[in-house]
Amino acid sequence: MTSQEINSYTGPLADLVQRLAETFIAENSSPPEWIVAAPGRVNLIGEHIDYNDGFVLPMAIERYIVIAAAKSDSDEAVVNLRSVNMDQVAQLDLTKVPEPSLPPKWHSYIEGVFAGFMKKIGADASSKLPAMNLLLESNVPLGGGLSSSAALEVATATLLEAVTGVAMGLDEKALLCQKAEHDFAGVPCGIMDQFSSVFGQENAFMLLDCRSQELKHVPFSSDNISVLITNTNVKHELSGGEYGQRRSQCDSALKKLGADSWRNVTMAQVEAAKDQLGDVEFRRARHVVTEIDRTWKAAKAIESGQWDELGEMMYASHASLKDDYEVSCEELDLLVELANSIGSQGGVYGSRMTGGGFGGCTVTLVESTKVAEVTAEMEKQYQEKTGIEPHSFASRPAIGAHRIK
Question: Are 368 and 224 contacting, i.e. CB atoms less than 8 angstroms apart?
Answer without folding.
Answer: yes
